[in-house]
Amino acid sequence: MDEQRRQARGMRTSTRDLEELRERLRSWLAGRVGAPVTISRLAHPSGNGMSSETLIFDARWTSGGEGREGREGDGVGQGREGRDGGGGGGEVQEVRCVARMAPASEAVPVFPDYDLGRQFGVMRLVRERAGVLAPPTLWYEPDPGPLGTPFFVMERLDGDVPPDVLPYTFEGWLLDASPADRARLQRRSVEILARLHDAPFTDGEMAALRPPGAGGPALRAHVDEQRAYYEWAHGAMRVPLLERAFGWLEEHWPADPGPDVLSWGDARIGNVMYRDFAPVGVLDWEMATVAPRELDLGWMIFLHRFFQDVAESMGLPGLPDFMRPEDVCRTYREMTGYAPRDMEFYEVYAALRHGVIMARVWHRRIHFGEQPMPADPDDLVLHRHRLERMIEEDRHG
What we know:
This protein is α+β, with helices and mostly antiparallel strands. The chain has two domains: 20-155, Phosphorylase Kinase, domain 1 (2-Layer Sandwich), CATH 3.30.200; 173-392, Aminoglycoside 3'-phosphotransferase, Chain: A, domain 2. It is 41% helix and 15% strand. It contains twelve helices and ten strands. Strands 1, 2, 3, 4, 5 and 6 form a six-stranded antiparallel sheet that branches. Strands 7-10 form a two-stranded antiparallel ribbon. Strand 3 and strand 4 form a beta hairpin. Helix 8 packs parallel to helix 12 and helix 9 packs across helix 11. The longest helix has 25 residues, at 343-367. It is globular, with a radius of gyration of 22 Å. It starts with a helix and ends in a 5-residue tail after the last helix. The relative contact order is 0.12. Residues 3-14 and 65-81 have low confidence and may be disordered.
């Protein structure tokens, strides 16, 4: 466990200078609010996330009534505390912020592109139309000039997030919780998916979330996009296990994939902020897309299975009765009236998708000298043995 902590501390997630970023961010925000701005030291969050670069900071300024106070959709004025500044009659604005920006190219990004404007729009859409508690959005800057890349700023929320490092199956508040509290957290987490999938988004809103140039069934487009991502992420290096898994998908393709919905794409409890075991923030929308309902369900189920396997490999009990497939699907059916189908396919697909991402993350660590390249490329897949069992066992009897 100490080695896990050491590796987490040593994992590089940014190549940018935070003090330089702070000054550039201060200058940019002053222009947006029309007043001098004070910004706290920038910090990276700990525990979760290695994709977009995330910065935490507090901003403070005094508005005098004549400066720019925002326009419809700008987000200015949301999530801030104000008080009389005295003297000139201005109001002191204090905003607790999180900024998300694409990683620098030299940081060996996990994904080939980062459409931050799309993420910003999805977060606003699901909050306003589905009642899903994505963080309130504040500002989006498409111009790469101010910080060297487009970015957006959202309100910082308070709560507890089940950590990835060390995994919540190892230690912490969720592991220590009572079975009743964990059951409540599980049910409320599934409710996020039920609410999102049942929301009445328009055809135009759904079309904007499909992969560029995609036509035909959403599941086919999603798998094709994942195959293209695998080719980009690993280049000339082949990962035979992942390629066998792609073949397994084709052999077990659902006869009727079911209705398409707005899919969160990264539906897992590590992307939810909780207070008293109820969600108060639903985070990380960069993988949002259009797909069958089961895509999110399979991801939520498998990601817990992944962390449970890690705990068991270390001789720890973990949470074996948490996020079980039959429980998650039963709860979802009760909430929506829809019975999930072909879940074997979607759980394997989740394991494959996670394998492609994590193999890319390990390539990144190799690039920065944090670990050597394994002799067997299948070892880049951290859950290698689980995925092997999933595609090699004859589960149809």
